């Protein structure tokens, strides 16, 4: 019979990211990131929403820490904003920026919550973009300087440092496509960004190690693609979406087949001697973000460049994305818990040496979330679809553990509703509701459900 109880030592958490929750965009010495520029450009985000205020966690962090403590999580995954820490090109480290994160980290530790810190969750300083951003090799070296500065200050108070969050999105949505900052729409012209992100990962990992040695864990977070359908198409997207990160980072090479399928659109001449040795660094754990799957077919009509989020990957111009069966979320993503199980098994089989964490999983539930005022004046948000989604994905994770996957921790995305990138504030992923008028936080039913799961270390049965 399948387990319903998590093994000893398994950890529960929730996750957020700096630009999505902090606000305080011009405070404490912070300067603009590519997301400030992008969101302030008319037409780029729904309703013209920006992260200027977001959840105001820059000021309300203590309240957020209290909510986390009450939830009972073992760990909290937050990200540090480079534009707070390195606000000017070539200028000094901004100690005031680091002070903010130090306060949050110490407040978490005081409540017995271990911090997991993502060093780069998409808020590249605009001054780096002005010099070419991820198309410029130099950016990788600037990210490493910054990573070292963060690790020097926060040290081993951070249990796990993650270099990058989802470089797939940075390169393919931001440089190949147009839906994320900086939104350049370069198609195959984005491959240099892919490589420079890989290089940044390796250099950042070394910079962190130089400060903390083995006292903290090192990782990276990838949104690995789990695709079904035509085998050829699936293989192609595995190369462009997954192995393009996993092989250099964990094995020290780009797969030859990747070069083969991108022949004619990319010569990879930006890969310099010695880069792959820099990129392959010993990692303690690999973070996987999982939401949904895709269904693929080979197409006979050339259709590059693609415009939809799922299909910007250059080199896949002969792949078709088919509608997925079953229920979908408010994002239009299919609900496929078995995909999580299959993906975890797949990564475990291909890279058995590295322990795994689910660094994000969650849902903007179809229909959205609505506040109910109880007769006694208290407020509630009933979100049965989110509870159902989480329950089924926790079950899938447990099944993978039963079948031998060394899965260490599970972070629910997200701790609270926040700035959902190009969708602005229209998509709610939180287990805590954010009232954007008053900035009040209202725990949803899913928060209470998760609290029980954590207390019992088992999936609630009714
Ligand atoms: C991979 C090739 C790669 C080579 C590098 C092989 O295992 O399949 O794609 O280029 O190793 O040594
Ligand atoms: C990102 C988050 C985002 C979430 C939901 C992930 O791609 O890391 O920042 O909010 O998915 O779209």
From TrEMBL:
- Keyword Hydrolase listed: yes
**Record PROSITE patterns:** GLYCOSYL_HYDROL_F1_2 (PS00653)
Record carries keyword Hydrolase: yes
Which GO molecular function, any one, fits this protein according to its record?
beta-glucosidase activity
Name the GO cellular-component terms.
cytosol
Listed GO biological process terms = cellulose catabolic process
EC primary class: hydrolase
**What highest taxon heads this organism's lineage?**
Bacteria
**What Pfam families does the entry give?**
Glyco_hydro_1
Active site: residue positions: 166, 360
Kindly provide the name given to this protein in its UniProt entry. Beta-glucosidase
Recorded source organism is Bifidobacterium simiarum
